[in-house]
User: Fold these one by one.
Assistant:
Number 1:
Amino acid sequence: MTKLLFVSGSLRAASSSTATCRAFIEALGARADCNLAEIGSLPLYNADHDGGAPVAAWKDAVEAAGGLVFVTPEYNYSVPGVLKNAIDWASRPAYESVFKGKPCLVVSVSGGALGGVRAQSHLKYILHGMLADVFPCQEVVIPHAPKKVENGVLADEAAVSFGTRALETFIARVSDDVRPGVRSQKPAGGQFPGSVREIPRMAERRA
């Protein structure tokens, strides 16, 4: 089964990005082994040290995944600092990092009408710079996302359905992909390292 690592670009408890991750994970069900990354514990990037256990666990989680699914909000016309920080840690060594050849799908959300398209464009540009394999598909953008969250899960049926179809195609691509340079998944029976967490439903919370 394909292992997908979902990465939310927001740390808020009532984040619509995380709510969107939960909705996609629920929609996929048994079609993929899904986990949600924990990037909030990572220190600020500093090339003078290796970041210790949190960074090592984050890199291991990226390497173990068959593919990554980023769901990002848009902050000031671009990606949130916390997400860029996590990416910077995992991008070392340059051009030979765990992101090299790693299949990635990008989704964006926002409270406005554009759905975070500028952040999505910037994130894809960043991923290309690390030689990640950015999945080409119709852009999955979710406008007015905070208003569409119920009990900690995105409740926009049309958006979830559209995004899930993209994810199903992404999974098929990841499963069939045998190109050189694409890092393999963790062996059967292996577990994702400590930088992933359970995805609890948030009772009566709205983003």
Number 2:
Amino acid sequence: MKKVAPLEAILWSIAFPGFPQLLSGKYIKGFLFLFLEFLVNGQSHFNKAIMLSFLGDTRLAGEIVNYQWLMFYPCIYMFAMWDAYKNSLERESQFSYIPFAFAAYFVTIGLMYSPIVTIKNRLIGPIFLPILFIIPGLVAGFFIRYILIKIRGSM
């Protein structure tokens, strides 16, 4: 089984969930993440929404996306990323899952609010608003992880 470096695992997982698992020889898990990526991506029309958003048509992106399917994406995506990161570490890191979990929570919240949040009468949309919500999710997750490590260390 090949060991993948933590940064390599994160970057490949950002590109395509399941790739780091395949690179490290965890084939069942890797193919499961790939299958889920294709399933949710296809059913939610995610790629079409990404394309429309980058072309500036965030309103149409919000209309064509299937929110019922897309709501699964942040948790699958962040779990696959955490799994790749966790498996790349030489030894287990305390509470390493917390920033990933909070990023998934916040991205999901961003997705829920994406049909109504505008800036200067311009809809941010189902792609860019959830992406923006990653930042407070990671900040909250790293902060909570820091507190838990301090509490555990003082016991």
Number 3:
Amino acid sequence: MTPNFTSAQKGKAPETAEAPAKALQPTGPNQQGRPYPPANRTIHAIFSVDPVTQRRIEVGSVSEHHASSIPLTFCSKDLPQQGNLHNDPIVVVARIADFDIRRVLLDSGSAADVLFESAFLQTGLKVTNLLHAGTTLLGFSEERVQPLGFITLPVSFGDDNGHAMSMVNFAVIRAKSGYNAILGRTTPNSFGMVISTPHLCAKFPTSSGVVTIRGDAIQAARCFQIAA
């Protein structure tokens, strides 16, 4: 079954079970007003899959949890210091299963949430934790990718203004890519997230304020170079 990650497990490798994981339905984010807690550790650059997947099964829907009077605005203060001269994609750090995972692409053009095998294994999880299904991922040129399996993990974002968590059903893929994970449009939507590529950031409301997630232009360039 899918391992549970709690504060008591900080500093320890996640415990895993030998039985296959059960698929959980993605839910709306759990918003927290307290400061964003530190991660167990950070997963940096690893080789995994191309950011061109589209799953045949849509997961989740826009949550009504985000009915909020807090406006989400972008202004000159949100622009990166050097500007977004190359129209870089939004590549961020995401908290996945209590690990800060770098090189995560926010891809509003994809319906799939993808976690690449090397990042998956670095969390301490095993292939035996995956739920195997016959779902196939399709790329831009109709190439087919068969996932190793699926697993539902907590994903969270936050800053000094607050943080929120949502359960995400990932397809685990074995392939080469500069990215460690890809979050398709359904996951940002579950947070009520608005993405601005000119400002190279995304924002979403919480009960304690607006959280801003900033993209990393340097990491985005490296991911592009690896995929080239």
